[in-house]
Amino acid sequence: MKTSELRALSPTDRAAKLKETRDALMNARGVAAMGGAPANPGEIRKLRTTIARILTIENEEARREA
User: What is the pLDDT along the chain (66 residues), one digit of tens a residue?
Assistant: First the structure.
């Protein structure tokens, strides 16, 4: 997801997206650990980047409120 799309989400929607993305990452890592090839080779990197973007936006908003 793009950063602008993540910023437009409400904090509860963003938390749900974070949980969904973390679950997808865990699933993709499980498939890779069992020796299977993921359908999209760059999927794990994309998921990690999305998680980092969400956490960065949450930290920025927390600093702004403090």
Answer: 899 999 999 999 999 999 999 999 999 999 888 987 777 889 999 999 999 999 999 999 999 987
Closest-CA residue to 3 (of 64, 66, 63, 51): 51
Q: What is the CATH number of the domain that holds 60?
A: 1.10.287.310
d(CA 5, CA 26): 23
User: Phi first, then psi: what are they for 37, rounded to 5°?
Assistant: -95, 130
pTM of the complete model: 0.90
Number of structural domains, the chain?
1
CB 38 within 8 A of CB 44: yes
